[in-house]
Description:
By secondary structure, the protein is α+β, with helices and mostly antiparallel strands. The protein has three domains: 1-158 and 266-316 and 603-665, no CATH class; 160-193 and 195-243, Calcium-transporting ATPase, cytoplasmic transduction domain A; 368-484, Calcium-transporting ATPase, cytoplasmic domain N (3-Layer(aba) Sandwich). The protein is built from 23 helices and 22 strands. Strand 16 and strand 17 (475-485) form a beta hairpin. Helix 5 (94-114) runs antiparallel to helix 6 (124-145) and helix 10 packs antiparallel against helix 11. The radius of gyration is 34 Å and the shape is elongated. Residues 5-18 and 574-579 have low confidence and may be disordered.
Amino acid sequence: MDNCHDHAEHNHSHGGHHAMTMDDAMMFLRRFWYATALLVPLLLVSNVGVKFLGTPDFEGRQYVGFAISTIIFYFSLVFFEHATHEIKAKSYGMMTLVSLAVASGFLFSVASTFIPSFGGMEFFLEISTLIWVLLFGHYLEAKSTAAAGSALQEVAKLLPKEVHLLVDGQSKDVPLEQIKPGDTVIVKPGEKLPADGVIIDGQANMDEALVTGESKPISKKAGDKVIAGSICLDGSLTIRLEKVGLDSTVGHIQQLVETAQTTKPKLQYLADRVASLLTFVALGTAIATVLVWTLVEGQTFAFALTLAVTVLVIACPHALGLAIPTVSTTATSLALKNGIFLKSLKKLEAARNISVVAFDKTGTLTEGKPAVTDIVAEDENKLLTIASALEAGSSHPLARAVLEKASESKVSSKQIQDFKNLAGQGVTGRIDGQQFWLGNEKILDGVELGELEKKLSELSDQGKTVAILRSNKEVLGLIAVADKIRPESKEAVDCLHQAGVKVAMITGDNEGVAKYVAVELGIDTYFSSVLPEDKYKKVKELQDKGEAVMMVGDGVNDAPALIQANVGVAIGAGTDVTVEAGDIILIKNNPADISRLLVLSKKVYTKMIQNLVWAVGYNVVAIPAAAGVFSKWGLFLRPDVGAFLMAMSSVIVVVNALQLKRIKL
């Protein structure tokens, strides 16, 4: 399969539902370093320091510990800020629990220090260590969730800061923000294009890899469209700007990345619910722990409270909070690297269950423009010379295909007299004093096709449009024109079959054309002569048979079908990345990327499940252990061990998510 090949908004009801930025990440990191510096002296004056490190015991030692840990506690107030948002929104999540754990542990230790009856059971060091771990965990999380924001900055880097604007024939350097549609700019070798536009003058090889993922330089000349963010490799270009700022390709990409940030995979909602539930489980268990140990077991209140605080500390669902966002973020950037835009992470999750991929034909599986596929004649060059002279005056799309072929074959051009368009038949005219006709069978007018008859019906059966060229006396030959199948389409279909997915094709073309393409590519089911507005009905037909359908189209007339499908994939066609209807966008316009998308979907889902199982499983074991359930075997979880285990579970979840980066799509 290999050879075929976040961001989830960080929304665990965090900070009033806002996505974390890089500033948030740096704030957590700063606090983490302050806490690190303070932990060293705190360790030296703690019970652990005196017992295990041999630091001298002195009068009032616990008050020094209290003073240092109060400063560290101050750094944790950011958690309480977020918790108040959660409580106000009645959406009790991770921050509520974090705050409970930190506050209960700290206040318990303060009471132990100043109220002798508590028996001196303070654990300032443990709570400070917990705060230290949480700050680092939140730094990691904010950093990973800000990655999609940095994807936005990466996109912004695609554009130059200054532009050479042509004003009254003179070049003038202006900031990027000042350009508008209709302006004319000059782009020199090695420079990036500031906006989408059309070349008026000059020719150059363009590197579009940063925007479309197309690795080969593309040769562009006057009249060609160029896209924002591509690099002019050689030659100087004069360009008339068409789409600027948010309307340009790069602008659309930015909007897509922003949209992606506000979507969350379904598993994220599950994780949020579990975190919320855990808050109540932890509180309930903590209260039960105090009651059972004091009333039933007859232990001191201080002892029972120590266990209860350990329960709250260990239940801190930090790993759970990190489980999904870290995977989502990694997935988003991995997809971007492979030219796949995830507008919706929910749909990426859904893609793993797809049973049928339905392709639109024109522009998706085929090139989308007619080209000459066959020439049947004794003298090909002579045929092309006459045909191109006749077609020079026609505006028919097939005429363009003939003219393109003639310029490729470098045939000499001829003058034409008495040119006439024959409605519903073709064209006629005189070349070098001789009359010629080019068109369908109606132009034969009694002239025999002879041996060419068999060839004509063969080409017509393949769904090709065949033009006949004749003179007064005889038929000179045939030119077949068709929409060419993309070379990548065969690979795309083969890969999907290898992955056990069926392939369908929905096209407005006639039965002949549809059948020819379907047979060539090995497509399982096809629907021909479908009107654009009825494509979605065909998707629904497949769904009614119990299939999970992914629709792949070029967005414009396929919008209803893309929306109807379980997952809609829009093919970006390089410039028009603004494919509103698609949930996922393939920038490279390569249908073979679909199988990469399915691989990514399965791997991402597996990672999310692994992280959830780990994060929840850890709590299932750790909470009863902290409550003293295993005490008859002599097993008690001390608060400091609890804090360490909680930290490790977060690290494991993050490391597991980052493994995704190694995947070859």
